[in-house]
Structures are given as structure tokens and as C-alpha cells.
Amino acid sequence: MTIDPRLVVTGYGPDGKAVIAGDTLVPPITARALLGQEMYLMWGSPDGGATVGPKAPGPITLPFFAGVGGTRLLLVRFPPASALTGPPSPDDQAEIDAEVRERLPGLIDAFDPGDTSGMHATDTLDYGICLEGELWLELDSGDEVRLTPGSCVVQQGTPHAWHNRCETPALMAFVGIGAKRPA
């Protein structure tokens, strides 16, 4: 059974009691540059730190990566590699890059232009949990690890890429925390 990402948010009613403030399915964001991936931007907190209570701000899901102290909660569905087509023609690249910049500002900045390996690094501490399927995490050293449902990853700003080498989609949940990279 495929998971349909759903977001349930609690809050406070007029009497100060806890209420369900929201309960909705979250639609995916896609872009040609994402090679069949579906991004579900679930929630985020402002840079500098989260607050809770009746006056807490609503979600901040963009830019894609949080600044220092901010957070992002997202799910990413990775298609099987066998479902992917080749890279776009160079004539389309500017249009494709513009599309992802519009839909997911900040995401493309983590990748080197012209590099089609998917290798990237971010200034975030990321907690990842495999929910469906299998996914391979590759590091720039060549180290790789296979993730199956229940596998948890702590990604500490290292260069990495994700690969779905199976015949079914893989779904990962990520919590990204904006971090400082020591000089």
C-alpha cells in the first residue's frame, strides 16, 4: 500500500484548549529537474528556532533548506531508476532550472551545475527515515548503504546522493535543521 502524505496539525482553540487545527493530504511538488521525484513539503519553522503556543507562527516550507536554527519536514518519493529517462537536452536546461527555482527555491543551489550524479551537500543536519521501498545512500568517498523501511540516517552535511535501484518507488521522511558549518 502506497502512503499518501497527510499532515495533522494541533493548535489552540479560543478557550485555550488543544484542537486539531488542520488535517489535510499534502500534494506533491514535481519538476523536470527532479527526475520523477515527488516532494511533499509538510512543515517548517523559522530560522533561529521554533516557538509553540497560541501565537506560534504557521508553517514555513520555503526556501527549501532552513537557515540556522530553522527546520523543514518533508517526504520525498524516489522513482525506480528504471523509470527515469536520460538527462534533458542542453537547450532545455535553463527552462528546467527555472522551473525548480520557482517551485522549490534554494534546492538547486545545493548541486553543482552540470553534475548529473545527484551528489550534493547542504548546511543542514538531516534526520531521514525510510518509510517505503529501498534506497541507496552514496557518499562522495564511494561508501554506500542500502536503506529499507525503518532505516534511519543522520546526514551531517556530507556530500551525498540518493539512488533507487529497485523496481518500486521509495519514500523517505526527512527533518532538516539549519546548521552552521565550522570554518
Q: What percentage of residues falls in helices of 4 or more residues?
A: under 10%
Name the CATH architecture.
Answer: Sandwich
Q: Could you give the order of strands across the largest sheet?
A: 3-4-10-5-8
What are the low-pLDDT stretches, counting only 5+ consecutive residues below 50? none
The profile of the biggest β sheet is: 5 strands, antiparallel
**Integer average pLDDT:** 93
CATH topology: Jelly Rolls
What is the CATH top level name? Mainly Beta
Extended strand count: 10
End-to-end CA span: 46 Å
**Topology as H/E string?**
EEEEHEEEEEE
Shape designation: globular
The fourth-level CATH homologous superfamily is Jelly Rolls
Radius of gyration: 17 Å
Which class do the helix and strand fractions yield?
Answer: mainly beta
The fraction of residues assigned to DSSP E strands is: 35-45%
Pfam family, one: Cupin_2
InterPro entries: Cupin_2 (IPR013096), OryJ/VirC-like (IPR047142), RmlC-like_jellyroll (IPR014710), RmlC_Cupin_sf (IPR011051)
Organism: Sphaerisporangium dianthi
Protein name: Cupin domain-containing protein
List keywords for this structure.
183 residues; three-stranded antiparallel beta sheet; 37% strand; mainly beta
Please describe what this structure looks like.
The model has no long low-confidence stretch (mean pLDDT 93). The chain has 183 residues and is mainly β. The chain has a single domain (6-178), classed as Jelly Rolls. Strand 6 (135-139) and strand 7 (144-147) form a beta hairpin. Helix content is 6%, strand content 37%. The chain has a five-stranded antiparallel β-sheet with strand order 3-4-10-5-8, with no helix packed on it. Strands 7-6-9 form a three-stranded antiparallel β-sheet, with no helix packed on it. It has a two-stranded antiparallel ribbon with strand order 1-2. It has one helix at residues 93-103; strands spanning 6-12, 18-25, 38-45, 71-78, 124-132, 135-139, 144-147, 152-156, 160-163, 170-178.
